[in-house]
Amino acid sequence: MTRPHYIYSLTTTLLASLLLASCAIKDDIPYPIVEAAITAFQVQGQCDKDDNGFARATINDEDATVDIFVSDTVSLDRVRILQMKVSNDATIIPDEGVSLNPNLFPSKGFDSPASTDNTWIDLSQQSATFTLHTYQDYVWRVRVKQVIIREVEISGQVGDAVIDPQNCNIVVYVKAEQDLKNITITKFKPAGQHGIVKQDPVGAGPMDFSHKQTFDITPGNATKSETWQMFVYQTDQQGDTTDQQGQETDQQGQTTAEAFVRGNNATVSGNCPSGSIPVVEYRRAGDDEWTQVPQDQVVVNGSTYTAEVTGLTPGGSYEFRTRIGDEVTSTESESYITTAPQQLENSSFDEWHTEGSGTKTLYLPWAKGGECYWDTGNHGATTVGASNSTYEEEGGRRYANLQSKYIVIKFAAGNIFTGEYIETDGTNGVLSFGRPFTAFPTKMRFDYKYRTSTINRTGGEWKKEWGEYITRSLYEGLKGQPDSCSVYIALGDWEPVMYKGIECPYLIRTRPTALHLFDINDPHLIAFGQMTQGRDVSTWTTETININYRVRNRQPKYIIVVASSSKYGDYFTGGEDSRLQIDNIELLYD
User: Fold this and answer.
1) Which domains are seen in the chain, by residue range?
2) Which stretches within 288-447 are classed as H helix?
3) Which residue, 492, 475, 487, 508, is CA-closest to 580?
4) Which helix (H) or strand (E) holds 247?
5) Distance from C-alpha of 454 to C-alpha of 566, rounded to nearest angstrom
6) Is 406 helix (H, G, I), strand (E, B) or coil?
7) 3-state helix, strand, coil in the chain (%, to 5)
């Protein structure tokens, strides 16, 4: 099942013998600004920050965010919305990967869902976005924090218990004089306040912890139980445990360090003795002095730690080490070189050439005799009509001019993308997205102008005798509303696929029977950033997109940048007079 909100527009291609004239009516009256906001939001299992009962969501109009807490009875990949009210009768569009059934998600605000509605959403990434559409698009982010209060207390305890939910381990230290064979558990909720412990040890009397004990526990949001292991150590044995209890205790006295470097920063991670606080340090290779990472940038989780190192110089060589007391684990034997910044080729869109003539002129965004880095959907459009992705010049500036049009039997959004148009398949396109790229930019900046128009094409308009048929468009409800443009950037480590002898980092096919479009939930996606605009921007404006990294332990192999005059062009939805002009794309490195 495809979810359309994060599937971005490409020009689809056309097969017919005659180009029909456009019937779009130019409307010079500007659209009113009608803002939209979430005014109430509630989910099943919502609570306050201490899980002491229900608490209202915190709604921030300035940041367009909704913050909620949920108890540990909630499975974050399946959260049911009980109430979602919005202002100005805005249309609600859940973004890609949010709704578990987007076809049944309510398009309007509600006090309670109807019996035919499906309001289950995925919050496993701790946030989800919704677009509220009036005459413009307003993107709101719902953020969730799950309250899991884990507590373990025993007789003679020293310090807090170290609870590692990822590995289902508990480590508790006691005084040296405490008899390990006579331990009384006074509080035991390692899986949260709503977890169920089979044969709860609280009140069961003394237990023997001269060896590990195991417990059968079912978390409050799960149906299957987990096997937890609990170790108790006397304080003078910390970091000096033997291997009589297996591999877990081996790791208690060992410290490891591994670095993953990027451009201006790095992540140092490894194992450490449970209950210890490692000190992480770094230096440029060859320097004498070490710099300590601020302690608030070191996160310990059971017997593992992670430290974020910032302020590095791109292209520099660094060494890292971790200290726990007198024990030092170092990477000095291996220097790590930070990644140098990279920029996109022809990112000012100054290089173009043309092939053919008249209405069949094919505009190509690279110098004649040069190599393709950017491409467009013009290859398909010019089989029956004119290019709708061209260049223009204004005041000494040359830029990409992307125009949405309806050509013969299909709506086509003007677009430009890093990659290559491979072939026309019937009336559809086959494209290769992505160019080699290994750096770690944090933002993408560009100049743009945009002219929106009324959405008058929403797909579902082909006839069976033309050889293809598609059901009613998912965006039928947007007809009559303003169109939006889209610009996005994606970094990933996709595995290339071969298509007719061509290696494609990310294969795109717009044919409905073999549909394969860009997926924001692709597991190979490392970082993503996006801008949409649904109102006129008549003067050159500089926009900066933040690039959000989902993982920080994998290096990109490819970069995808796509700009389109109609956000939903892949679904043949948009306005025939929408136009995006874009120039001077630059990658920024903090």
Assistant:
1) 38-146 (2.60.40), 151-238 (2.60.40.2340), 258-337 (2.60.40.10), 417-588 (no CATH)
2) 378-381
3) 487
4) helix 247-252
5) 11
6) strand
7) 5, 45, 50
What are residue 569's phi and psi, to 5 degrees? -60, -30
Q: How far apart are CA 255 and CA 331, in angstroms?
A: 12
Q: How far apart are CA 573 and CA 577, in angstroms?
A: 12
Looking at residue 404, the DSSP 8-state letter turns out to be -
Distance CA 139, CA 545 (A): 14
Write out the chain's pLDDT in tens, 590 residues. 333 333 334 433 333 333 333 333 334 455 678 899 999 999 999 999 888 889 999 999 988 999 999 999 998 989 999 999 999 999 999 987 788 888 899 999 999 999 889 999 999 888 899 999 988 889 999 999 999 989 999 988 887 888 888 788 898 888 888 899 999 999 999 998 899 999 899 989 999 998 999 999 999 888 888 999 999 988 754 333 333 222 333 334 467 788 889 888 898 988 877 667 789 999 998 899 999 999 888 888 767 888 999 999 988 999 999 887 766 776 655 678 899 999 999 999 999 999 988 777 889 999 999 999 999 988 865 555 678 899 999 988 999 999 998 765 677 889 999 999 999 887 678 999 999 999 999 999 999 999 999 988 876 544 444 444 444 455 666 788 889 999 999 999 999 999 999 999 999 987 777 778 888 888 899 999 999 998 999 999 999 999 988 887 789 999 999 999 998 877 778 899 999 999 999 999 97
How far apart are alpha carbons 367 and 519 in whole angstroms?
31
Per DSSP, what are the bridge partners of residue 420?
432
Query: Which token pair is 40?
Result: 């109430």
The two tokens of residue 179 are 């008899």
Q: Which amino acid is at 451?
A: R
In DSSP notation, 286-303 reads T-S--EEPPGGGEEEETT
Q: How many Cβ atoms are within 10 Å of 283's Cβ, its own excluded?
A: 15
Specify which residues 306 forms β-bridges with. 269, 299
E-strand ranges in 387-536 read: 389-394, 397-403, 405-407, 410-412, 415-425, 428-433, 435-436, 443-451, 457-458, 485-492, 497-499, 502-504, 506-509, 525-533
Nearest to 278 by CA among 241, 303, 259: 303
What is the value of pTM for the model shown?
0.59
**CA pair distance 421, 372, nearest whole angstrom:** 10
CB half-sphere exposure, 481, CA atoms < 13 A: 22
**Total length of the chain:** 590
How far, in Å, CA of 305 to CA of 178, rounded?
Answer: 29
CB atoms within 10 A of CB 569: 30
* Contact between residue 267 and residue 256 where contact means Cβ atoms under 8 Å apart: no
Given a contact cutoff of 8 angstroms between Cβ atoms, the answer to whether 299 and 307 are in contact is: yes
From residue 488, alpha-carbon distances to 117, 377, 536, 546 in Å are 31, 17, 19, 10
Phi, psi of 65 (to 5 degrees): -130, 155
Q: Are 419 and 505 in contact (CB under 8 A)?
A: yes
368 burial (CB, 10 Å; 0-12 / 13-18 / 19+) is exposed
Q: Are 123 and 144 in contact (CB under 8 A)?
A: yes
